[in-house]
Batch of 2 targets.
Target 1
Amino acid sequence: MSSPTSAGTPDTGRGSALPGLARTLVYTVRAAFRTDARLALVTLTLAPAAWLDGTLAALFLKFLTDAALAHDGVAVVVAVSTLVVTLAGGWVTASFGRRLQHTLQEKAGVALEDELIQVSAGTPTLQHLERSDYLDRLDPLRKEAWIVHWTLESLAQTLGALAQTVLTIALLASVQPVLALLPVFGIPALLVGRAAALRERDAQEATGELRRRQHHLVTLATNASPGKEVRVFGIGDRLLRLSRETWRVEHARRTRVAWVGAGWQVVASAFFAVGFVGALVVVGNAVAAGLAGVGDLALALVLAATMSGNVGMVVSMFQWLAGCLAVGSRFLWLVDHARDEHRTVGASPATAARVPDRLRDAIELAEVTFTYPGTSRVVLDKVSLRLPAGRVVALVGANGAGKTTLVKLLCGMYAPTSGSIRVDGTDLTEFDLTQWRARCTGAFQDHARFEVTLREAVAIGDLDGGPGERAVADALEAAGAGTLVDVLPNGLSTQLGPTWPGGTDLSGGQWQKVALARGLMRPEPLLTVLDEPTASLDAPTEEALFAGYAAQSGTRGAHAVTLLVSHRFSTVRTADHIVVLAGTGVAEQGSHEELVARGGTYAQLYELQARGYR
Ligand SMILES: Nc1ncnc2c1ncn2[C@@H]1O[C@H](COP(=O)(O)OP(=O)(O)OP(=O)(O)O)[C@@H](O)[C@H]1O
């Protein structure tokens, strides 16, 4: 459990380091075995076996050459048979192996996506979805998560390439022991390949922001919602130019690193060529001196020629594996981040304080200071506030004053950097956050558009309560969307979202009402937050809705605090208590009458809006 007065939302990003490749390998291989142990085992044995047939074929070619030169008919038949069996076995193993690997990848892919949903949605705070350096890190994972499915396959192929190389070395040594040194000439290529893979991973990490930016520009040009402004302002060409320029810079940075790696690869390959020529000279001299046979020469020629390919394959398989692990390490980072947060944010269910059944006194903020993790700007500075039980508190202030931030802190999406939030005297960090959030509800300005049936879109506001038809209809009614059921083609069973078969789009206001209805599903919340969820609704509708919500907070018996954030003073004035945020703190607070009488910021803003309606 973190100390609310010192730690704040933990910076669990483990500095800038991603988990190491070896740890990522162990994690992903274990995950593949968890998914399907038999398939994983078959993949790890069949794929490497398929690599050996070419090398074994070279050995049987030597037997064939020796048998032919010795005019031994039986030995020729045996050599040809083993050669055919080896090659055919290799093909069959490769084909079966591919099929099984494909099945394993599909299974591993689904398992990975399941874990991704579980980890991302289950992480206590919003850091990994909001912090720009974390997003740069997670972006490749979002787009290329499928690459992680290939880890076991790439490991199997790397092992195969290594096994082939070891067998080749053993056979070369059997011709002339000194030939066992040939792979030494391939070591620079291996080292260069590994260094190049790591540098490319770093370059990818460093250019993450540019790729996200370019993707954002494409999203702006290809989605309906920004589509109106894109056309009205005629910014299509500008988006194109920006996208091209962003891609150019990002691409240039990454390709520069790739070209440097390729250059070193050429140097390393030239080094190997020197070793290859040396090997040929050694075997040639041995045959000339009668120390080796023609079969040995054939074997050495074939193997030495493929040795460079072998080393190259080991390098490229290794690079492939490193590429899979680079994406996998981001996944593991997220898993670590989630685990760290579960350990440090809030209390564990076993030791947590009990969330009260009903609020008796108040939710209080004591000297709460908050800076978003990864940034330096103080958003809230020593804010102290009392939100009394059963009351409606309105939060007003200019854009960026910190209203939504305060809402996030109250819902436990972040912990204060210092200071504390207390619920009837118990620090929020002493609760298990899942249990606390089960007693929070509300609706948000950037509400989700769940493209499911209307019934589900509302019912998920209270999953524990089951999908009770009556409760859903009542919530829609209370949210001012009762008529939606009659208007939509299949009533509550209507699929929302125009891109689905039989799906229907809703207007902005209708989507907001669905979100509000969802927020009304929780039976006995202790905290209801309404963070500008009604921007698309007209003022009287907003006022009626807020009044309905406020009434619920008292009548549901839990004496909830209703916190409403709105820029409409006609609604704000109906609240029991009004808090004006400005700068980094509370500028003034009181009832509407008190604040108007004081003639401060609130009074001026209220007068400004009231004049607009006269
Ligand atoms: N995830 C974030 N990371 C870093 N800074 C943030 C983040 N979210 C908000 N901020 C900053 O915190 C400050 C307060 O933002 P907040 O969203 O709380 O304001 P607000 O009062 O709700 O504004 P509005 O009325 O426009 O909704 C702003 O300066 C904003 O830039």
Target 2
Amino acid sequence: MAAAAAAPALSFPTTLHPPLHQHPRRRRRRRGAEPPACVYSERGITFDPGSAFYRSDSAAGRDLAVLAATLHRRRLRRPDPSAPFLCLDAMCGCGVRALRYLAQAGADFVWANDASDALRPVIVNNLSRFERAAAPEAMARRWVVSHLDATRLLAERFLRREYFDVIDVDSFGGDAAYIRAALLALRIGGLLYLTSTDWRSARGYGSRSSLSSYGAYIRPVPYPNEVGLRMLIGGAVREAAILGFHITPLFSYYAYHGPIFRVMVQLCYGKQDGISNYGFICHCKSCGQSRTFGFDELGQITCGCADKTDPSSITVVGPLWIGPLHDTTFLTEMLSLATEWGWANTIENGVTLEKLLDTMIEESDSRLPPGYIRLDEIASRAKVNSPPLGTLINSLRKEGYAACRSHIGANAIKTSCPIDACLEVAREIRNLR
Ligand SMILES: C[S@@+](CC[C@H](N)C(=O)[O-])C[C@H]1O[C@@H](n2cnc3c(N)ncnc32)[C@H](O)[C@@H]1O
């Protein structure tokens, strides 16, 4: 795709999300007859999900991946500029991600893999239909389809020293089992897109499972979905450190449907001194304050509030990622690209990318500590009615604190303001009215 051009729109006939009673697979058909194609569309790219697991709700997560992969491709400075830009969709379902990396992110070559070989006709059909329409004269295929266990495929590519620029792992449940193999098969500087739907571990209802999968002991806190994202990043931090690298989170995205936790991390050269931004979050139920602690403070974890005497009021989770959830510069460039392509203002499956990315950019302020506070908690602790979200954020900013909405908690704020001062600001807002 040309650098400044809009994302290509294809001319396949489009039937958007047919109602269930009209779904082609539900109609009676003659034995042996080919099922009619049920064509879906994402940002102008059409495909047939066939019998694969496909959620149209996850389109925003795929939009973010395409924007990130495109930026990464544009930013690349390789010793060999002719080296192809390679993307792997390690658990591809119907191949929609592979298709979008090929069609929209400008990948030179995509590898679409799914353990289920029953999906082969669906994946091949989607990729070849695109290629025929986009470049009818092309002699060489720009994709390959395989049906291997993802770990085996990743390990094989690593052993052959064939590395990818982008690896997308979108499994059912958690991704922990694939992180190390995926990092091995990734080029240094490459992007790894991880997904987890293991909300029980992420929210602290399966502490032993989060410990065995991600090395983090997670217990319930008032901002469990942010902790889920931090646990996923923390897992990648730990695996990268074991391999002698480090990672930088480019963005973290929680979506309510599913629910789904997604993080895009970049593999960076060399081990960091110790593991920075990897530690513990301590939440005090008594005063509502959260704090972060490094490994060198283990044994000294306590809350500074008056109720120091009650150790049961403190919940400690970790080790996990305690740094910023996103990279501000990268997200700002993603938003510019979404605007350039006309994606920013359109609502797709209930998500407006501009609104989402704006909130994520605000969340990436490095002054903001982990966690968020819900307005009803502020109201109940301050013993006032809930202050309006925007007014509270503006007042906190006027006081010199970082404050913003959270893309994760709808009625919540993230702020660097200590809880006592925040309650005071909420009271002032209510008393002034
Ligand atoms: C959540 S679906 C993928 C959806 C797809 N990425 C999308 O965006 O529509 C997970 C897919 O992973 C495949 N899968 C599960 N375990 C796998 C494994 N170990 N290796 C490769 N594929 C696997 C399943 O067959 C399934 O199609």
